[in-house]
Amino acid sequence: MLDPLGLFEYRVALHVHSRYSDGTGTPERIIAEARRVGLDVLWLTDHDGRRAATDPGSGYYGHLLFLVGAEITPPTNHYLVFGEVALVAPTAPLQTIIDSVNRQHGAGFIAHPDDPGNKTARLPSYRWDDRSVDGFTGLEVWNHLSDWARQIHHVPAGLWAALHPFSGLSQACPETLALWDERGRQRRIVGIGGTDAHAARIGYWPFSLTIFPYRRSFAAIRTHIYTNAPLASDWRRAEQQLLDGLLQGRVAIVNAALGSETGFRLWLQRESGAAEPMGTDVAYDSMWILRGLSPVPVGWEVFCNGRLVFRQDGPLLHYNPDSPGVWRVVLRRGPKRAVWIYSNPIYLR
Ligand SMILES: [Zn+2]
Ligand SMILES: [Zn+2]
């Protein structure tokens, strides 16, 4: 069984900080590390600036497409922005920031909505406070740094975690998942997975330790974006193709620490063969079949409005949704059956 929609899939690391804000790597070095781990796209998001768009410049570096967004950073309510947009100052109200990105046809995501901060590391919480806003493209459902820091309850745990950057990667924050399902009942809310890579250093040479070198962050939480055609050789057109995928929810959140394969697909299909991709928003009827394909055998879980309704093992999923709702799947794999992939929802209204 092949994907009837014939989509193209790209492995993207997004939400990444360079020396232009509080990361420790130059953009050139980060590009080199992204190429080494075999990413297709690196989407840099420095705080409140897009200097890397001109130095070293957006475009292809070998096979890697390097794009420059930003993270607009008030004290709380961080907002990830993708596309060629002029940035609003972080002092503006969040709704003004969201509206400005939309007017410029960019995509914007609430960053780490339930970031807990960390008392041990004396980090404040950067959670999403202004929940009255709307119009954002979606939520950063899985944030590697934020979810990794959640396990640090005391200094020894912090030292252990610093040496084990993939620990704490068994699932996204349950509160954020619940928020995603709830908001999706009104409209499409696109979920992405961010690295929040800074390659932060602690201590001083020769005893310094880099927590999460970029290449290790890039081997953890990724966002896979699906396009209708191969990415264009002109980088501006390629960026637009990726933005279309983001805006339409043709996106999977992948925990690459469990496997970096491509080939996951989720779609709706009828007996006649007519198919609709992940992210689609269509009228419910009982003839739609939810179908899934995985490159390796996995444990499938089907959720409707945040409630687990079906489980199946193997490389294929075949399920007949019995009601309208926000339908999404989770793929588990490995001895601990940790989460490998969160699909974006299919909305049956
Ligand atoms: Zn942030
Ligand atoms: Zn960040």
How would you explain this protein's 3D organization?
There is one protein chain. With 349 residues, the chain is of the alpha+beta class. The protein folds into two domains: 251 residues, Alpha-Beta Barrel (TIM Barrel); 84 residues, Sandwich (Immunoglobulin-like), CATH 2.60.40. It has an 18-stranded mixed sheet that branches. Strands 9-10 form a two-stranded antiparallel ribbon. The relative contact order is 0.14. The model has no long low-confidence stretch (mean pLDDT 93). The structure holds zinc ion (2 copies). The site of one zinc ion (ZN) has 5 residues, from loops.
Which features characterize this protein?
two-stranded antiparallel ribbon, TIM Barrel, 18% helix, globular, binds zinc ion, alpha+beta, 18-stranded mixed β-sheet, 2 domains
Short description:
The chain is of the alpha+beta class. It is built from seven helices and 20 strands. It has two domains: 8-258, TIM Barrel; 265-348, Immunoglobulin-like.
CATH topology of the largest domain: the name is TIM Barrel
Number of helices: 7
Q: Give the CA-based shape.
A: globular
- Largest sheet geometry: 18 strands, mixed
Q: List each distinct ligand once.
A: zinc ion
Annotated CATH homologous superfamily of the largest domain: Metal-dependent hydrolases
Kindly provide the name of the CATH class of the largest domain.
Answer: Alpha Beta
Total strands: the figure is 20
Strand content: 25-35%
**Rounded mean pLDDT score:** 93
Structural class: alpha+beta
